[in-house]
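Internal tracking record. Fields below are filled automatically when a chain is submitted to the structure queue. Please do not edit lines marked as system-generated. If the sequence contains nonstandard residues, flag them in the REMARKS field before resubmitting.
Queue: standard
Priority: normal
Entity type: single polypeptide chain
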Amino acid sequence: MPSKTFTIHAGDDGTAHFSLTYRDPRQSGISRLSCDLSAVDVVKLVLFSEAASLHSEMAANGQSEVELEGLFLSHDPSRDALWIERKVGFSTQTTEMPFSEFHTSMAEVTDICLTRARDSKHGEAIAEFLNQSTRIEALEFTHAPDDADQVHHRINEIALILLADDACRRGSDLGRKLRGKKTLEEARSHVISLVETLAAELLPANGLSEAERA
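SYSTEM-GENERATED OUTPUT FOLLOWS
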């Protein structure tokens, strides 16, 4: 891949600036791909980064994609490649970079999103429900206990960002359940259900085969 430098700078209001400079051997000089991301798109980008990383580590099949305002990203785990497409009017820029470098550079913004989620109105309650979630069964057959705990923890972090964002939306069903004492058990079931859904999407469909488990 051509040499590249990726940076993302978070703003105090949840927005961020996405910037990638690269030298394409097919062209002269240095090119720059950049855009400002809304707070909503920053959350989407963080979720994409974390889910794609976990998806790759778990050797699950398929590519991960996310479409933001004027920006499209696709991850091919078989090549550790991140395809980036930027559209401005009738102009389109496309390039690739190693996904591992992108994910590493996203660490600070990811931590900010996690902190915002924990500090949100319902973040503490959601985090407590997530802590009560049982170990994902498929991990028992594919990972050592410590590694399984780490994967489960990362899935919980993805769930926390998703759920905290959902609960803060006006008219949110989850937010309504979290506000009522009589509906807290329904809220807990909602949280646990999402963890199970994420596990089904991010982990290999059937874990290890019977032969591999033997």
